[in-house]
Amino acid sequence: MYSYRFSAIFFFLTLVLIPPVSFGQSGNRLQIMPRGLGFSNQLEYSYNIDTKREILENWLNLDYSKGIFTGGLRFDIFQPNDPDPSISRGKDKYAEIDFKYFKVDIGDQAEGLDILVGNYYALLGRGMIIKSYEDRNIRIDNNLLGLKVIGKYAGLTLTAFSGMPENSQAERKDVLHLADLEYRIIKGLKIGGTYASNLPPTDGMAKTDMASVRLIPSFWDLDLYAEYGVKMNSDVQKNVFNDSESKIGEGFYSNLNFYFGSLSLLAEYKYYDNFSFTSQDGTVFYNTPPSLRIEYAYMLPNRHPSPLDPNNEQGFQLAAGYSVDIDTYLDAAYTITKTLPEDSYFQRVLNSSNPVQTQLEEFYFHAQRDWGSTLTTIAALAYNKELSTNTKNVTPILEGRYYFGDVNTIKVIVEHQQTTNWKTDEKYYSDVLSVEYLRSPNFSVSLVTELQTKEPEPDHTVRKFWGFIQFGYKLGYHTDLSILLGTRQAGIICIGGVCRYEPEFRGIEVKMLTRL
Description:
Blueprint: H1 2-17, E1 37-48, E2 53-66, E3 69-78, H2 85-88, E4 94-107, E5 112-120, E6 122-123, E7 131-132, E8 134-135, E9 140-141, E10 144-153, E11 156-165, E12 175-186, E13 189-199, E14 208-219, E15 222-233, H3 234-239, E16 249-260, E17 263-273, E18 312-325, E19 328-338, H4 345-350, E20 358-371, E21 375-386, E22 391-404, E23 408-421, E24 427-439, E25 443-457, E26 460-475, E27 479-488, E28 491-495, E29 498-502, E30 505-515
Antiparallel strand pairs: 1-2, 1-30, 2-3, 3-4, 4-5, 5-10, 6-7, 8-9, 10-11, 11-12, 12-13, 13-14, 14-15, 15-16, 16-17, 17-18, 18-19, 19-20, 20-21, 21-22, 22-23, 23-24, 24-25, 25-26, 26-27, 27-30, 28-29
């Protein structure tokens, strides 16, 4: 344990004591790192007073470029890690170089060849077949270890790789192969196709194949995207469908963006039927198709999220934004997601016969008005109906921003949410008040309080209160420091439909991000 803590303390002191970047008379930033060397470090520490649980996580990234060569590594320290097994992946106390790569870039951006050996991420299209990425807010890191090649010539882009993901036990067993070809036919029109195959480590088990085609036209004020994919597995085809089906799942996603003067429109449609692409043990998700969920900037509308289910979803999303004038902006969004009918691949594989249900329905309206250069007001309304928690939520929001001087801002947000559980007829409400002072760009302090009022029995009211104060400070030109003190309600954090549960917290939380 001492070695882990010593390493973390060493990194913390090193980052804090790095001298700030200074400027010469010309205003250019002086070089404090060797040319071609990139450095970033993210440290997160928390101590929960109630559970006596201490969590320390640190990610140190180093990258170096010289001519056509680039290499890098990431040194991870967990002491201890988050106890959630989906996050820790068997790394309770851990300090190792967990990500490293070497890349050669031949040619230029239009025509050339990139060859990478080591750990890497990959995203093709909108993530229908492959979305290998890292997001530390939700603790997603499904990187691959192997070889990746990207070649470009005369409008053609070929991407091919072979890699192994890390499962929940920090083991790399499955092998994923992929080839993708994209061709720009003319300016504003591209087509593409992807084929991927996952080889399970267990002998006698069939591989899972995924294939898709996509069309990407862009002309006038219209941007379009459409992709259709299929899923194949010979074991399921034989044992479930008696070889009467050539596929065991399918997915379709389309997107349209339209711009006309002050008006912008968005329309999206999805159909995901038994379309998840995972490792054999189901702990690594290779694909994350678009979720069509509304991403909120406020606390209470995010309190009842709905995780993406790429096996059993169909729905659409409509959104519009309009600038009334230079000082007034309106936008609204509506989305609905339903489960699939009885004749879907998903239900036939499970041998189930469940009726179609509304899994998620959301509506959001937002109006912003600037009153000169000193005041901005925002009014918003969020409506959410969610099947997994059987709740309906209505959330009005008011926000005001007052600017004084060139760098000072005070922001006040009031949120109120009325929740109804249609299974139990229970009704309760929550209120959040946030007050923030920002002195840009170096200092901020915010106070956030939340009150939840329930009446589990007639004439018996139960109130719960949470509150914290958070400080933000920029150290020099390279480090952002954040310190949180207080209590925070339990909740689910979701980004792009991928979620993780965060338990109730009472204590101190420190975050520090350094980039050089």
